[in-house]
Every structure is written in structure tokens, then in C-alpha cells.
Amino acid sequence: MKSILFFCLTLISAGSALPLELGSPFSENMVLQRQSEIPVWGWGKPASEVRVTIADKKAAATVAEDGSWKLKLDAIPAGGPYQFQVTSDSETITCKNVLVGDVWICSGQSNMQMPYAKMAGSKQILANRKGRPIRCMEVKRTVSLAPSQRCQGQWSSRPVPSAVALAFSYHLQKDLDIPVGIILTCWGSSWLEGWMPKDMTEELPHFDQMMRDFEKNDRQKVESLIKKAESGKRAGKGQKWSRENEIYLRTRPNIVYNAMLHPLAPYAVRGIVWYQGESNARSIEDMMQYRQSLQKWCQRMRALWQHDDLHLLVVMLPKFKVVRNGKSIKDPTAHSWAWIRESQMKILDLPHTSIVNTIDLGNPNNIHPPDKAPIGQRLALLAQRDALGKTLLAQGPKMKSVTIHSDEIVIAYENAEGLATTDGEAVRGFWVAGKSRQWKAATGQIKGETVVLSCGDTTPEVVRYAFCAVPNVNLINAAKLPALPFRTDTDKP
Predict the structure, then answer these.
(1) Are 266 and 39 in contact (CB under 8 A)?
(2) What is the CA radius of gyration of the chain?
(3) Is the torsion defined by CA of 119, 121, 126, 129 positive or negative?
């Protein structure tokens, strides 16, 4: 409960105890979600009444026997700054400088965590964001063996530490002209399974096995490392692990979720931006499993937030040279990131989801490429189109249909306004194959909102586009957004 002193201006009578406490996401400088009921929760004296006031909205609740309380405020339009006040008996917590706008959770692993100093173009974004109502709460990176009710983090108007989240928040605020709040909870090297609640073992057999292995092989060590950190904190040394032990902890299943995601729910947000997958691309089996895991995780997060249309924005993995079966980085049959990109795109089978195409970005030799600014801008476009219902060209050409003739293939696209190539040359990045599945590169010509592939001496049956580790692509639309990868075959890798 002492942590609230770091979060809010608290007024209490001299010498009294401080049982009144707010949930971790509530503090001075916070951003509350507009156009939505606002859940507020915390702890206090059992049987006492808690009253919350902001602007002209008021709500009250009675503290339960276990000391917890929860209530909902009616929706508030974008604006501020406001004073957010919580009272119970003679105690008052006052959070100043509160804004109302759009709030997004930005989560994932190292490419979400990557600091903006490493981003190309960061100085211009930093200069342009000055004075804009953008706030961020960064969640402290730690673990817990059980779902935690609290986490550490404080809302601030300082620049968002993450390169992707900084660019996203800047472009979103500039386009919408309302306050934007980012809750940054991410950790390098973490697997998707690290962000899963334990009950997902009932739906995912591989996760069930991971948790069984954890209980058998890891639990005792994790428990010891947590106790050591807590002991150091009590001694005033802070929480410290060796780099080796920290990497060990952030790559275990479930325990990152317990500490860094569970305490945030059900804070009202517009959606989640998810940039993760590199750690789940260590084998073709992992990459294929990811499609089901990501869908199940999305549905579970919606249940946790009690928000059926909570939007999920997924960042596709960009170009990278890793191949798992020894083939060329240009080979469409290589066990490359092409397969996890396809798994990521399967999230679109669920409603209220989007995917940012990064097939034209990345560095084959750098798993942490600096070109994060375009990702943030594309995220902002998709958030406006898909989560807010604005009409705009927010995504590159997406395959709509494929018509196969004896000597050519006609590919029709949606989002095809101004279909063109970046260099004025023929369309690149396609492979075609017949029944023998001997894949051959094919070039195409743009005809209206279609691309026509000439297949030469191949009798075409199937086609793949941008389906390799490092594709050489150039197809875009009027918004200069790249075409999405696809394949028409159903062959297993």
C-alpha cells in the first residue's frame, strides 16, 4: 500500500493509517479510456464506502470483507486535465493532471522493448511530439509464481521509451487530436507462453506440457530467485538478478503474465499492440503452433478484460536471414520466418484484429532493425480504420482471388487503389509451381487492380508471394503500403 505514495497526491489526517489504495494502473498523469465505462478498483477498510469522482462523473462501492472494492464510472469524452478523487471515511486520494483519450497496451518482446534512441528518425518524432498530450506507464519487468494483484509503474508525460510505441502514440495523437495513453509491458526474449495465464493449459496441450515441465524442473529455482530479489529489496539494494538469471526468468512460461499483465486488467483500454514472435520461431513446429496459440491468447485476453471487442493489433515479423532447414533465404520452401508470418496473419480469422505488414522492412543481419518509425505509423493507420471505424487506406494490397489459366495467373487485390511498384519495374516476389511443386520465380505486370503472372513453361497450379526469409518485393498501393504475403497451396512445410 505504500506504493500509492509514488503514484498519487494523497491527503490523509495526521498519524492515521493508509488502508485506502487504488489499483496499480491508477495514478497522477494517467490517461483514462474515452467512450467506455471505466472500471476502477482498489482496497480499503471492509464495509466502508468508497466514492470516486472525476469531472461530472461519480460512482460509489462498498469495500468487501477481503478488503477489495470495484466500481464503474460512466463514459467520459476525450479531454482534460481533470482531478480524479477517491474518498473513504476520512481518507482521500487525489490524482492530478488526468486526461481522457485512447489507451493502448503495447506488449511483446525485444522489438517492442527496443528504445527509441536506436530508431531511425527518432529525433524528428521527439521534436514533433513536444507539448502533445501523450502519456506512458511502463510496467516494471519482473515475474511472479501466482497472478499478482499489483505491479510497479507510474504514468508520465516523458517520451514513451519504446521505439514502436513512441512512433505509434505520436502518429495516433497527431491524427486523432486527442490524448493518447500507452501502457508499456514488454520483455525481451519472452515467449508468447510467458504471457499466458495458467488456465490456458486446458486449451493448449503444448502449453500444458510446458507448465508440467516448469513445475518439475524450474519452480524451485524461480522461487529462490524471487526470494533473493525480495530480500535484496528489503535490504534497500533493489531487485537485482544476474543477466543469466534474468534471461532464464523471462523465458519461463506463465510467470511474466502473472506479474506484468494480470495486474492491469480490467483497466479500460482501446486495445493491445502485440509485437512478439521471434522466440516462438525457433523451429517449424513452434511457428506452426503459433497460429492457434495467438488466437487462443487473444480470446483469453478479451475474457480477462471482459471486453469481447478488445482490439488486437499484431506486428508481423520483418525480413530476417534465419532458416531452419539449411535452404536459401530466398527459397519459398525454407523453414524461415515466412511460416510464423503466416501464423500471425491467421489472427485475422478473429473479429476486431489487424496485422501490420512489415515485409518490406527489417535487416537480414539484425534481429533488432532500426526502421521502427514506419511500423508505428502503420499501427496508427490500422487503429483508426479497424478500431475506430474511420474510412482510410490503412493497409497494403491484400490478395482477394487467384484465377489460374494455362499459361498465366491473375491475382485480384483489395486495398488496390493506385496499385504500383516502388521502382517502376515488373512486380517481384512471386513463385509458381505445378503438381510437382518445383517452385519457379515469376514476375508480374499490373493491370488495373490485378497482377498478371506469366508462368513460362510451367503449368501453374499454386502461387506464393513474399514467402521466404528475405523476400525481394516492390508491390504497393497509393498509400505506399506493401502487399501482404500469401500462398494458395495448403502444403505442410
Answers:
(1) yes
(2) 25
(3) negative
CB atoms within 10 A of CB 221: 13
Residues 10 and 18 sit within 8 Å (Cβ to Cβ): yes
- Helices vs. strands in the chain: H and E counts, helices first: 11, 24
Beta bridge partners of 408: 454
Does the predicted TM-score (pTM) go above 0.85?
A: yes
Q: What single letter denotes the amino acid at residue 35?
A: Q
Longest dimension (CA), the chain: 88
Can you tell me the distance from the alpha carbon of 155 to that of 348, in angstroms, rounded to the nearest whole number? 32
Place of cell 485476453: 301
> Strand, coil or helix: what is 272?
strand
User: Model confidence over 374-432: pLDDT tens digits?
Assistant: 999 999 999 999 999 999 999 999 999 999 988 899 999 999 999 999 999 999 999 99
Half-sphere exposure of 367 (CA within 13 A, CB side): 13
Helix (H) or strand (E) holding 340: helix 338-345
Q: What is the bridge-based pairing of β-strands 68-73 and 38-43?
A: antiparallel
Under 8 Å CB-to-CB from 285, ≥6 apart: which residues? none
CA-nearest of 322, 239, 243, 309 to 282 is 322
